[in-house]
Design brief:
The complex is a heterodimer. The relative contact order of chain A is 0.15. In chain A, helix 3 crosses helix 5. By secondary structure, chain A is mainly alpha-helical. Chain A has 13 helices and no strands. The two termini of chain A are 43 Å apart. Chain A is globular, with a radius of gyration of 26 Å. Chain B has a domain of 164 residues: MetI-like (MetI-like fold), CATH 1.10.3720. The chains are: A mainly alpha, B mainly alpha.
């Protein structure tokens, strides 16, 4: 009987099954992402912005701090393509250099919130019980904070504490790092402290539901340690929605930084930040609207690009929409 | 259900305590005191001032005194305006922020919900694509871009609306719109997603099979159910708008709490900073609590979790 079955099996094995190329979640998602024209547009814009921010010194016609009082408040023309601000600095060059600030803030905010938040939520959700309870209580408490107010408070603290420092001490080194970044370092810290909370909650919810699945039990049965289960087995399943959430949060971090610069608590002048340019330009909006409108346009385009990409990623990674 | 509510309300107390603790110590960690900006006074007078306001007590004592006062409803004096207490200041500025928030939520609902509904009913047609594109624009364009653009266009070019400040109803239009349009876009997307789900439910099919007119199906059967997730979002949305109105208040020079917060932090006016922080935190907590209660009331499955 077994021999007959085997023969039957062998006979059917000669049927030609067409070869499909090997694929996985990411290749699949990328393919679906590429079909979505808006998200491709967003991705292209982000790549262009990254290119601009890296090669800013080569692209910008003038240096961002090059001002000449002979030409202040000049209208857009052949000398200054988008006009000049109150100190005679070229608006276009400042927008180009400003791309660095906004993208840096967006990326660092995303990285911090992703790494800290996802790990925190993963650990909390996986262990459950008391550990989860305590960790989530901390998150709940931090969730009640009005974020923007807290960031403002922290920025004032950082700026005034690190304003006058003696080099060589810990405080002095931090202040030097900050100056090297053009005033961004403390913004990174400020945004990082508040950004991870939302991601932690999300990751924890997903970890809690994944914990009960069979593959976790199987992984445990085959001898994986807790750490291995979390990183090798659960994390790849969580990562899709987390990436979507992070991409969609980046515009918020960019707005935070722009607002901080708007009220003067952000980057140190003359480093250009779009928020600071808008705030300076707003004072002259009646006669020189270009000073406030062009940085605003740049800000809007950047946020639009990230939103397009995030929407596209969400549709591409959603298994229900296949 | 009552148990759930009581648990959540009791949980708010430690949250507020921690927030007050963190804010208090952060505020005092900022170098400089409240009396540095004025003309330099002789040391004895400064010492007198500080002891009058209790600033020479050890920090922990200042904190516990502050807490004791807050429990009696007294948020303390303001260091920068001598004649006013924090209660006065907040009482004067908070209604402005609250009204701005309410107007923004109204704009969001009036613009966003119908847009989302129309999109859902005419899914995948040009109307759907256009509405969702505008929704995406509304979510992406920040208040800092939109504000100056609107001011430039409506106030400076067309001269039909005032530029800034607060008081008349015309002055309220631009700020409410700037603040509300982002939320309108959010509500539009949410309404559309929810409506799309509801339209596919069986009870809608039954209603149509029974011969109910399409308009009645939409309004009486689909809309009510589609609006559930939207309504639960409105609470936190209001809280987010009030606490996030900082940006719009700066752009339009509106005398609200947000703008005052920034000036108080720069002036080291600790009681005002603490008061506004606690108030906003309370607002967020209440809004989140309301959402959870509404959710658990509407969906009984959550009650027993």
């Amino acid at each position: 009987m077994c021999a007959q079955l085997k023969e039957k099996n062998n006979a059917t094995n000669h049927v030609d099954i067409p070869e499909r190329p090997e694929t996985n979640l990411w290749k699949d998602a990328f393919r679906r992402l590429c079909k979505n024209k808006m998200s491709v547009l967003g991705l292209i814009i982000i790549l262009i912005l990254t290119f601009i921010s890296i090669f800013a010194p080569f692209i910008a016609p003038y240096h961002y701090a090059d001002g000449s009082f002979m030409h202040n408040y000049e209208k857009p023309g052949e000398r200054y393509l988008l006009g000049a601000d109150f100190m005679g600095r070229d608006v276009l060059s400042r927008i180009i250099y400003g791309t660095r600030i906004s993208l840096a803030v967006g990326i660092i905010g995303a990285l911090t919130s992703f790494v800290i938040g996802v790990l925190y939520g993963l650990i909390s959700g996986y262990y459950g019980g008391k550990v989860d309870n305590i960790m989530m209580r901390i998150v709940d408490i931090m969730y009640g904070f009005p974020t923007l107010l807290l960031i403002i408070l922290m920025m004032v603290l950082f700026k005034s504490t690190f304003a006058v420092t003696t080099p060589g001490t810990f405080v002095g080194t931090l202040s030097d790092i900050d100056k090297a970044f053009g005033g961004l370092f403390f913004i990174f810290i400020g945004i990082g402290i508040t950004a991870w909370i939302g991601m932690a909650r999300m990751a924890r919810g997903m970890a809690l539901s994944l914990r009960e699945k069979e593959f976790v039990e199987a992984a445990r049965a085959t001898g994986n340690s807790n750490f291995q289960i979390m990183i090798k087995h659960m994390l790849p399943n969580l990562i899709g929605p987390c990436i979507v959430a992070v991409t969609l949060r980046i515009p918020r971090y960019i707005t935070f930084e722009a607002f901080l610069s708007f009220i003067g608590l952000g980057v140190n002048p003359p480093t250009p930040s779009w928020g600071m340019m808008i705030s300076e330009g707003y004072k002259a909006i009646r006669s020189n609207p270009h000073l406030a409108l062009y940085p605003g346009l740049a800000l809007a385009i950047t946020m639009l690009a990230f939103n397009f990409l995030g929407d596209g990623l969400r549709d591409a990674l959603d298994p229900r929409m296949k | 259900m009552l148990n759930y509510i009581i648990r959540r309300v009791l949980w708010a107390i430690p949250v507020l305590l921690v927030i007050s603790l963190v804010t208090f110590f952060l505020g005092h960690a900022i170098p400089g005191g409240p009396f540095d900006k004025e003309k330099p006074v002789p040391a004895e007078i400064k010492a007198n001032l500080e002891s009058y306001y209790g600033l020479d007590d050890p920090l922990w004592k200042q904190y516990t005194d502050y807490l004791a006062n807050v429990l009696h409803g007294d948020f303390g004096p303001s260091y920068s305006s001598r004649s006013r207490t924090v209660n006065d200041i907040i009482g004067e500025h908070f209604p402005v922020s609250a009204v701005l928030g309410i107007l923004a939520v109204l704009v969001a609902m009036v613009v966003g919900i119908p847009l989302g509904m129309i999109s859902a009913l005419k899914q995948n047609t040009y109307i759907d694509y256009i509405c969702m594109f505008f929704a995406l624009l509304g979510v992406s364009v920040p208040a800092m871009t939109l504000g100056p653009v609107l001011v430039w266009f409506f106030a400076l070019k067309l001269h039909i609306l005032p530029v800034a400040r607060w008081g008349t109803w015309q002055q309220a239009i631009l700020p409410a719109f700037t603040l509300g349009i982002g939320s309108a876009a959010l509500l539009a997307r949410l309404t559309r997603a929810s409506m799309l789900q509801v339209i596919r439910e069986d009870y809608i099919r039954t209603a149509r099979a029974k011969g109910v007119s399409e308009q009645n199906v939409t309004v009486h059967h689909a809309l009510k159910n589609a609006l559930i997730p939207v309504v639960t979002v409105i609470g936190p949305l209001f809280a987010a708008l009030v606490t996030g109105s900082l940006i719009v208040e700066q752009i339009f020079a509106i005398p609200g709490c947000g703008k005052y917060f920034v000036t108080s932090v720069t002036n080291r006016d600790y009681p005002v900073v603490l008061g506004i922080m606690l108030l906003y935190a309370l607002l967020i907590i209440i809004a989140n609590l309301l959402v959870d209660i509404t959710y658990s009331w509407i969906d009984p499955r959550i009650r027993y979790s």
